[in-house]
Amino acid sequence: MASVNEHYLKLSAGYLFPEIARRVQAFLAECPQFSNEIIRCGIGDVTEPLPRAAVEAMKSATEELAHRASFKGYGPGTGYEDVRRTIAEGDFRSRGLSVADDEIFLSDGSKGDCSSIMELFSHSNRIAITDPVYPAYVDGNVMFGNTGGPFDGGGYEGLVYLPCTEANGFLAQIPCAPVDLIYLCSPSNPTGTVIPREQLAAWVAYARKHRAIIFYDAAYEAYIQDPSLPRSIFEIEGARECAVEFRSFSKSGGFTGVRCGYTVLPKSLCAWTDGGQQIPLHPLWTRRWNTRSNGVSYAVQRGAQALYSVDGKRQVAELVSHYLENARLLHEGCVRKGLAAWGGTNAPYVWVRVPAPFDSWAYFEHILREARVVVTPGAGFGRRGEGFIRISAFNSRANVVEVVRRLASVQ
Amino acid sequence: MASVNEHYLKLSAGYLFPEIARRVQAFLAECPQFSNEIIRCGIGDVTEPLPRAAVEAMKSATEELAHRASFKGYGPGTGYEDVRRTIAEGDFRSRGLSVADDEIFLSDGSKGDCSSIMELFSHSNRIAITDPVYPAYVDGNVMFGNTGGPFDGGGYEGLVYLPCTEANGFLAQIPCAPVDLIYLCSPSNPTGTVIPREQLAAWVAYARKHRAIIFYDAAYEAYIQDPSLPRSIFEIEGARECAVEFRSFSKSGGFTGVRCGYTVLPKSLCAWTDGGQQIPLHPLWTRRWNTRSNGVSYAVQRGAQALYSVDGKRQVAELVSHYLENARLLHEGCVRKGLAAWGGTNAPYVWVRVPAPFDSWAYFEHILREARVVVTPGAGFGRRGEGFIRISAFNSRANVVEVVRRLASVQ
Fold it and tell me: Which of A100, A214, A326, B96 is deepest in the core (most CB within 10 A)?
């Protein structure tokens, strides 16, 4: 008799973003006259065209496949060598950070990576997760059997939640209880907070002392404009002994539909067996990719590589500037309306306290109905997200200006 | 202290194909004068250009991303609806098989799928795997912790191996010991054997009786030309209650570098909790994809869809005919040389008994050195593969003719 993975049955309700889509559809079924008026600032999905450098590289790579002499079949499971070199050079070595080409592992996006990385670890690790948090970290761990059952009101037994609240500036504090695996996201999805250098150094020191590993999600690093803020955990000395970094081209190059990201897993990173043996993780991660994947689509790899060309870099910078100005306008609009708001600088998300008497799903529904604007209820990111909404800056300028106008008029 | 998944440490040696690549490199380092002479019939990788219909669709989809009005961001985690409809219609409903659009789950290839499917199941299942077998099935299960340690000479404790030998025509027999999850591959990688209808019906009857589930890998179904042979397990009545089918565009459309495949997981497929509760797997598989993926690259999906157009179908048929004629020539060449050979009809692989006194790695080395032809040692596919080699028909006609010529002259 085929026996099911019962951990799946612990998953509460739907995954957040399909649930938002379902509620928007329900509203439109009820009020179809608003279907052209809806502006989506919920799911953090880019809206502006793909950089021309990537488009041309992908079309040209596709044409290569049409000719026997330039045809490419199976590529390396972890990405083409020259693509990995471009990335290691462009994102790390050119900034003085030591990352080897083969420490870059290409993937179809960091959503998958932040779950897949757990495959390298046993079920006995104590896992620290910020609250609020990007829900894929949590749901992936539930499915793996790394948690207990759900709590009423959100969250799962067996995880160590690190509260990110107004009181601590939405920055997770190092826990008293020892933990082994730590998810950090900077700039944060959903709060838009960036972890300052000294705090990140404290995390690295903690991880090294306790032989813990930090999963550092830097999917939004391109939005960091303040040079004093770290864009990579590898800017911190000692991080090569205790961190994996997740990167994505989704929000820098507009690749949400193209699908490409990567992990940086240093050769010096180790975990331990129950018997105390120290095991380097780089060969395991390599084996994982070679066994479970044949790498990222060839044309997509060439598209990602083109983002590092002179034109590509300029086009990425323009995209990022565009969304950052959106974020500034949204933050300003919220503040002008008298709402408490955070983020929106060095980050594409604005984190807004919902006014009384609403809770976050109720305010989500209120804004949907009154302003025809879709936001993300903070409660969807965890219990500490209750009382907030996240507004995404990924939109056209015209839509953002209109959202600000409409929000101003909502009671 | 971060605790490692110790199951990885059971994995013996390298994954087969990187190991072959390593040995070829070692030979060329020793004899660099042969580097232009090597012909690769080892890894089953296509060589001929991508069908023009797919190339044009992918280029056009890429250009869509360059314009705001046609830009696509995140797609559905399981694939675009119209792409799933094209596939369900083209591969199943047009052949009288009942498969709904949303029973198609797009992925970046079936190598990943045949491991990922295990995520839905507990560790207590008894898993049946043919021997010889595509090594990714086994290695994926080792990494998941579904096996014990390695046996000397290949294989792992805790799996139920189904011998495929000359005596049984390389067709796995239904085991006496009860099993819960069964991997079948038809046409078989590596032996090129196709499971006949009555035998597949016996497997379905077994699975239904024992509430087992069959993972049916049909990655090479396009090569089945004999209309009496089943191309899908869903041609067998009752399979919708006991089977998942894996399909790939790698060998039909030449997508090994493009990366696209799909699973068919019927809504009527269930597994059971320890408490005996029956759990439909379709919502779990959907949740798995939505949590761990944002779907296949947009342009790749459009490329796969284009393989079902009138031009696309013709171009796929031409590709398949080309490789099938190669397979016929290779099989004929082996037989003419006096070697016992199977497969090569309705399948792109020829399975050849190695002559005395060689074992399969020794014959691999012999052919590499004497004929500068790379094949795959059967032992790489399991203990029952010892004494055989697999020759892949994925090559140009000129190379295949040359391989036949060179093999004829090898002592």
Answer: A326
Bond into B187 cis (ω within 30): yes
- Residue A92's pLDDT is 98
Q: Is A313 helix (H, G, I), strand (E, B) or coil?
A: helix
**Confidence grade of residue A176 (pLDDT, cut at 50, 70, 90):** confident
User: How many Å apart are CA B29 and CA B377, to the nearest integer?
Assistant: 21
**So what's the pLDDT on residue B350?**
98
The Cα B169–Cα B175 span in angstroms is: 16
Minimal C-alpha gap between B349 and chain A (Å): 17
Nearest to B1 among A71, A72, A211 (CB): A211
**Residues B13 and B19 sit within 8 Å (Cβ to Cβ):** yes
Whether B177 and chain A come into contact, CB under 8 Å, resolves to no
CA distance A355 to A363: 8
- β strands within B113-226, DSSP E: 127-131, 159-163, 181-185, 213-217
B119–A143 C-beta distance less than 8 A? yes
Closest by CA to B297, choosing from B75, B95, B127, is B75
Two structure tokens written together for B368: 């590499």
Whether chain B has a CB inside 8 Å of the CB on A225: the answer is no
| Burial (0-12, 13-18, 19+ Cβ within 10 Å), B344 | buried
Q: Cβ contact (<8 Å) for A273 and B3?
A: yes
Please, which residues 228-247 of chain A have a Cβ atom closer than 8 Å to chain B?
Answer: none
DSSP string of A232-288, one letter each residue: SGGGSTTGGGTEEEEEESTTTS--TTT--EEEE--TT-EEE-TT--EEESHHHHHHH
pLDDT band at A411 (very low <50, low <70, confident <90, very high): confident
* Phi, psi dihedrals of residue A376, rounded to the nearest 5°: -115, 125
Residues 6 or more apart whose Cβ sits within 8 Å of residue B204:
B214, B233, B236, B237, B238, B239, B242, B243
Which residues lie below 8 Å from residue A105, measured CB to CB, with a gap of 6+?
A78, A79, A262, A263, A264, A265, A285, A286, A289
For chain A, list the domains and their CATH numbers.
Answer: 7-48+311-409 (3.90.1150.10), 54-308 (3.40.640.10)
Instruction: Tell me which DSSP letter residue A82 carries.
Output: H
Please say if the pLDDT value at position A163 is more than 80.
Answer: yes
The rounded distance, in Å, linking the Cα atoms of B289 and A220 is 23
Give the integer Cα–Cα distance in Å for A250 and A230. Answer: 20
Distance in angstroms (rounded) separating the CA atoms of residues A70 and B257 = 12
B131 token code pair: 């021997």
Global pTM reads 0.97
The shortest CB-CB distance from B257 to any of A15, A73, A254 is to: A73
> What's chain A's Rg over C-alpha atoms?
21
**Token pair for A411:** 């009671």
Q: What is the predicted ipTM?
A: 0.96
- Give the nearest chain A residue to B243 (CA atoms): A2
Measured in angstroms, the CA of B93 and the nearest CA of chain A are apart by: 28
Question: Using CA atoms in the order A57, A59, A60, A61, what is the torsion angle rounded to 10 degrees?
Answer: 80
Q: What's the CA dihedral at A180, A185, A186, A191 to 10 degrees?
A: -130
- Cβ of B278 under 8 Å from any chain A Cβ? no
Give how far Cα B95 sits from Cα of B4, B88, B215, B305, B318, Å. 48, 10, 21, 17, 20
Q: What letter represents residue A273's amino acid? A: T
Neighbours of B229 (CB within 10 A): 17
Which parts of chain B register pLDDT below 70?
Answer: 13-15
Alpha helices in B117-249 (DSSP H): 135-144, 197-210
Say how far apart CA A344 and CA A288 lie, in whole Å.
Answer: 37
* CB distance B375 to B354 below 8 Å: no
A59–B contact, CB cutoff 8 A: yes
